[in-house]
User: Which sequence fits this backbone?
């Protein structure tokens, strides 16, 4: 596997800006959700899909309390401490009151991130205290050049 640089991850993610939101999709410029964005960036970096993703519901199986996003992150990415997050790292969000993590973002700087947000599509926004409080886990793409 090729070594990846942080600026490659961020550049790839920024290439998805403006892509409309579409649940379960991962097609740049056409549609994606938060997982589709991370999958698309992976594909651009490594040249293949990390996994064949089965169909999933928008609620990510909250009734079962399963941590499917976190499990996938731990399988394909390297889990890191929240304090170690840097540009290009992926983080999972647990919505207020939710029992499982349901959203992903890619950090682009100390206080900004890119994510696919329902009704807005792929956007780069401030990592405000509101968002920061909901971070449940952080991950790093494999073979990151440091």
Assistant:
């Amino acid at each position: 596997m090729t070594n990846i640089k942080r600026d490659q991850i961020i550049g790839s993610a920024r290439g998805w800006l403006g892509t409309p939101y579409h649940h379960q999709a991962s097609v740049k410029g056409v549609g994606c959700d938060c997982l589709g964005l991370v999958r698309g960036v992976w594909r651009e970096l490594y040249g293949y899909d990390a996994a064949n993703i089965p169909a999933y519901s928008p609620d990510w199986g909250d009734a079962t309390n399963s941590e499917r996003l976190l499990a996938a992150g731990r399988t394909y990415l390297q889990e890191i401490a929240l304090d170690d997050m840097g540009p290009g790292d992926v983080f999972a969000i647990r919505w207020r009151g939710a029992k499982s993590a349901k959203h992903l973002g890619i950090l682009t700087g100390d206080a900004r991130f890119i994510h696919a947000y329902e009704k807005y599509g792929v956007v780069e926004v401030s990592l405000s205290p509101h968002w920061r409080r909901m971070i449940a886990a952080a991950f790093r793409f494999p073979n990151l050049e440091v």
Summary: The beta strands are 26-27, 31-32, 78-80, 90-93, 103-109, 112-117, 121-126, 135-140. Residues 34-46 form the longest helix (13 residues). The first strand starts at residue 26 and ends at 27.
